């Protein structure tokens, strides 16, 4: 394929992918503002990402925001005031999700809490007949993801994972380019999550336990997680604790998922191995600042370089995410490198797009992207209306979530090589590792065996 033909292929792939990603939104918009077209949603978790999401949902035609659910009264009131300014109507503020789920007018729930709540909130919502948009990482344990899939199927619900790249046209065009054989035989993929600091506080600066702030229901904030006294470091730095987060890997789940997407969504790896720990500071922090992971598939190896000590590596800035600038790939902290027998591809999240090089530093193909929220969120709303499966459907995204879980379990089990049985989703060579597959839930916040 010569360069002119290749550029034509990329252009047509982009156009086709854009149609897939945006077509549902166009369908929904074309219906106008009829009463039957109105979609009523609720937000659970009014933090930074939750507010970013709900403000974008508010821009979608015929979407009404009826509830804000947050256990922090101060933050919840601030969210209600913000949304009233944007939409002209004040949502109801509640602290208990079950009040939202009892309202038959609500069609969908956006779950943007800390991660210990993601699975239980999703299952509860499915049982109540609600559709769900659940933020990353969709689960905290492998077993939880399987329960989420079962609940979505049993109750016929739409569950969209907050893996925005599943709606990115440049992700589809990269997948088509690779599938066509333009890179040759792909045998090695490198996924990067090389951040400048460990999420959740770095170095850790612990604070003493104290009484919860006025207006915060600490028990409900903890939810399924083990009971512990209120601590401001835990509350605002929950990303740094295994009870609430997968750490830096939870940020990198977008990149791990994008890698799977463009590779044609391979199933679970046969094995995972890990080396790492918290090397730079001996500060009592739980999350690693060095974690090098290897996933082994049939005739394909994928590595995951997850670190927290490289301030010279940056995420794509807005001129890349929302404009026409390309990243400086060597210092892009969450890039993907895909190595084929003919050529290699740089691929970035946040709308960075992809570029292909061959020998002699020759650029032979590229597709610049745009931040995919603008396609992903309307896709969820349209799927509520049409009952089609969303771009980020729960079962496929569970396989991506498991990459994070497998990486962290290999680390926590003692930097081991673990063999994974895809059928049972259990490890075959390490009983200690299997202990990390599911938690012991705290009553009454229990995810049941039978959903």
Number of helices: 14
Terminal Cα separation, in Å? 51 Å
Query: β content, as a range?
Result: 15-25%
Could you give a short account of the major beta sheet? 10 strands, mixed
CATH structural fold name of the largest domain: Dihydrodipicolinate Reductase, domain 2
Count of individual domains: 2
Helix content: 25-40%
Radius of gyration: 22 Å
CATH class of the largest domain: Alpha Beta
Quick gist of this model?
The chain is α/β, with parallel strands linked by helices and about 450 residues long.
Describe this structure as you would to a colleague.
The protein is an alpha/beta fold. It is 35% helix and 19% strand. It has 14 helices and 16 strands. It has two domains: 182 residues, Rossmann fold; 240 residues, Dihydrodipicolinate Reductase, domain 2 (2-Layer Sandwich). The termini are far apart. The N terminus is likely disordered. Strand 1, helix 2 and strand 2 form a beta-alpha-beta unit.
Write the layout of secondary structure elements.
Elements: H1 3-30, E1 39-44, H2 48-58, E2 63-69, H3 73-87, E3 92-94, H4 97-101, E4 108-111, H5 118-127, E5 131-134, H6 142-154, E6 159-161, H7 169-179, E7 188-194, H8 218-222, H9 232-236, H10 248-262, E8 271-277, E9 290-297, E10 300-307, H11 318-321, E11 335-339, E12 344-348, E13 353-358, E14 362-367, H12 373-386, H13 394-412, E15 417-421, E16 426-427, H14 431-434
Parallel strand pairs: 1-2, 1-4, 2-3, 4-5, 5-6, 7-10
Antiparallel strand pairs: 7-11, 8-9, 8-15, 9-10, 11-12, 12-13, 13-14, 15-16
Helix pairs in contact: 1-7, 1-12, 2-3, 5-6, 6-13, 10-13
């Amino acid at each position: 394929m010569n360069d002119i033909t290749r550029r034509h292929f990329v252009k047509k792939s982009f156009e086709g992918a854009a149609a897939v990603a945006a077509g549902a939104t166009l369908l929904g918009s074309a219906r106008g503002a009829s009463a039957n077209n109105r979609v009523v949603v609720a937000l659970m978790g009014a933090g930074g990402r939750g507010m970013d999401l709900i403000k974008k949902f508010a821009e979608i035609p015929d979407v009404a925001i009826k509830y804000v659910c947050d256990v922090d009264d101060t933050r919840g009131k601030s969210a209600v005031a913000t949304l009233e300014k944007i939409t002209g109507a004040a949502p109801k503020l509640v602290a208990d999700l079950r009040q939202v789920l009892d309202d038959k007018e609500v069609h969908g729930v956006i779950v943007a809490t800390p991660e210990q709540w993601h699975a239980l909130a999703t299952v509860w919502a499915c049982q109540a007949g609600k559709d769900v948009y659940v933020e990353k990482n969709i689960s905290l344990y492998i077993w939880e993801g399987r329960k989420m899939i079962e609940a979505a199927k049993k109750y016929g619900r739409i569950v969209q994972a907050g893996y925005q790249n599943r709606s990115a046209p440049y992700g589809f065009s990269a997948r088509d380019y690779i599938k066509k054989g333009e890179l040759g035989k792909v045998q090695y993929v490198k996924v990067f999550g090389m951040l400048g600091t460990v999420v959740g506080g770095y170095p850790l600066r612990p604070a003493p336990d104290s009484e919860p702030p006025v207006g915060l229901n600490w028990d409900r904030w903890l939810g399924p997680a083990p009971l512990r006294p209120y601590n401001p470091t835990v509350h605002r730095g929950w990303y740094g604790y295994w009870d609430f987060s997968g750490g830096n890997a939870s940020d990198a789940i977008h990149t791990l998922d994008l890698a799977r997407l463009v590779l044609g969504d391979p199933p679970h790896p046969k094995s995972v191995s890990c080396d790492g720990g918290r090397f730079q500071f001996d500060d009592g922090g739980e999350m690693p600042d060095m974690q090098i992971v290897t996933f082994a598939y049939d005739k394909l190896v994928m590595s995951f370089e997850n670190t927290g000590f490289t301030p010279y590596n940056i995420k794509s800035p807005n001129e890349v995410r929302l404009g026409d600038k390309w990243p400086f790939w060597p210092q892009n902290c969450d890039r993907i490198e895909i190595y084929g027998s003919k050529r290699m591809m740089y691929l970035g999240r946040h709308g960075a797009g992809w570029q292909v090089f061959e020998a002699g530093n020759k650029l032979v193909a590229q597709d610049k992207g745009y931040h995919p929220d603008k396609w992903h969120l309307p896709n969820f709303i349209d799927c509520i209306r049409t009952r089609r499966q969303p771009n980020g459907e729960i079962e496929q995204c569970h396989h991506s979530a498991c990459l994070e879980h497998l990486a962290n379990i290999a680390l926590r089990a003692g930097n081991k090589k673990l063999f994974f049985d895809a059928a049972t989703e259990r490890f075959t060579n390490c009983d200690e590792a299997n202990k990390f597959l599911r938690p012991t839930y705290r009553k009454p916040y229990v995810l049941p065996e039978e959903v």
